[in-house]
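Section 3.1: Structural characterization of target chains.
Under the original work plan, the team committed to producing a structural model for every single-chain target entering the pipeline before any wet-lab resources were allocated. The record below documents one such target. The sequence was received from the expression subgroup and is listed exactly as submitted; it comprises 83 residues.
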Amino acid sequence: MIEAILAAAAATPTPTPTVDPNLVTPGPVGFVIVAVIVVLAAVLIWDMQRRIRRVRYREEVRAELDAEEAAARGDGPAEDPKG
């Protein structure tokens, strides 16, 4: 019991680093690569939002044109397709 207490109270040696910390950091090149990836991802997200918005607008226009055609044929009431 006393040996366990003495062993727990003994100082634990800290390991000495064997690798130079400056050699394992990404440095400026890594920062530039990450920055380029972030910019490319932002551009891709912006472009995808623009394309999705365009498809949504086209669908709304198609629905309005279909409703106008149906009203002109007398198939149904000329309601606003948006609700």
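The chain is about 65% helix and 0% strand.
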